[in-house]
Amino acid sequence: MKESPIILPKRPRRLRTNASIRSLVAETKLSHEDFVLPIFVRRGGGKEEIPGMPGVFWHPLSGLAESLQLYVDAGLRAVLLFAYEEEKSSDMKAAFSENSILARAIAIVKKTKSLNGLYVISDICLCSFSDHGHCGVLQDGRIDNDETLKLLQRQALDHARAGVDMVAPSGMMDGMVAALRKALDEQQFTGTCIMSYTAKYASAFYGPFRGAAGSAMQFGDRRSYQMPITNVKEALREAELDELEGADILMVKPALAYLDIIHSLSMKSHLPIAAYQVSGEYAMIKAAAGMGMLDEEAVVQETLMAIKRSGASFIMSYFALDMLGYLKNS
Ligand code: PBG
Q1: DSSP H stretches of helix in the chain
Q2: Whole domain around residue 281: which residue ranges?
């Protein structure tokens, strides 16, 4: 007697038969246009690998254009600039003027013709310049929100004058977007974009960055300004405020441990959502891969895919150059 066949009209595996059909139905794709590379710039010295971040370098101002040219030739479209400033002070004066590291770095990029297509985003924060390592002005042991805003306005204007395309305030001060928008608009920089670190959590994943930016706190922690890791609604509230204040883009950071936040914001907001795969996320993968415990390329692709799938329009990542290489070879 012949056995009757199993009748199963719905077979999801049909769409997984081979690579062609799998890629046709892929809901998320990564492209070279999705990535922004964070760059650490310092005044002098040579190009030097940053301890704790293998494959990431400090770039001296003198070699910046040359390094960036190589990256642009490899397909990089955008950079996020951070300063490593050795001169730290209570008034944080090295953060300002056309002689600040970031204003000079921006000017170098903008004056180099062959780098014309490179989109430049600059960090707006004080932690790399203050002698205490906090992101704002210290008054009687507390961070003074509104005094900090005034300094952030100065810093953003210095960067705008140097020609920056977008400023990215990262200090989680109340009203930082409104303050920057006002300062920029009053000086006719109406075209300078603002990407707000809308939901920046008080995370342990920033460890390696604090060495890279020389921004380790001399005391305390950042929990009076960065967000508590327990909260989602608070991120939605921050998003609402940033929208009202005139942000162009909302950012979530860190990325992999906060995919729910990226997703919630992308469902609730009509603004583009960016995500930052931070230094600790980078270090974790590098360390495990370095010990032969993980396949670096596969894990990098999987984490970045997850970040994009969760709703990010684009991603700040120290793996940006690696990804450009993987995508070329795929
Ligand atoms: C500080 C700042 C931090 C990062 C970007 N800007 C860290 C911090 O809050 O100490 C973290 C980036 C990373 O870990 O890659 N304004």
Answers
A1: 19-24, 61-73, 101-111, 145-162, 176-186, 207-212, 233-245, 259-268, 279-290, 296-309, 320-329
A2: 30-329
> What are the catalytic residues?
200, 253
Q: Is the dihedral of CA 101, 71, 160, 252 positive or negative?
A: negative
Sign of CA dihedral 109, 110, 111, 114: positive
Atom 14 in ligand 1: which residue has the minimum CA distance?
Answer: 206
Residue 234 lies in a domain: yes
Ligand 1 centre distance from Cα of residue 19 (Å) = 39
Return all residues near 121 (Cβ < 8 A) that are at least 6 apart.
36, 78, 79, 80, 81, 164, 165, 166, 167, 168, 195
- What atom in ligand 1 is closest to the CA of residue 208? 14
Q: Is residue 131 part of a domain?
A: yes
User: Is pLDDT at 201 greater than 70 in this prediction?
Assistant: yes
3 is a domain residue: no
What does the pLDDT look like over 147-166, one tens digit per residue?
A: 999 999 999 999 999 999 99
Residue 1 maps to a domain: no
**Domain with 194 in it: what CATH number?**
3.20.20.70
pTM above 0.90, yes or no: yes
Nearest CA to ligand 1 atom 5: 170
Ligand 1 proximal residues by C-beta, below 6 Å: 123, 125, 127, 135, 170-171, 206, 209-210, 215, 222, 278-279
CA 41 – ligand 1 centroid, Å: 15
Compute the distance from residue 282 Cα to the ligand 1 centre, in Å: 13
Reported as a single tens digit per residue, the pLDDT across 274-317 is 999 999 999 999 999 999 999 999 999 999 999 999 999 999 99
Domain count for the chain = 1
- Distance (angstroms) between ligand 1 centre and the Cα of 213 equals 8
The protein residue whose alpha carbon is closest to atom 7 in ligand 1 is 206
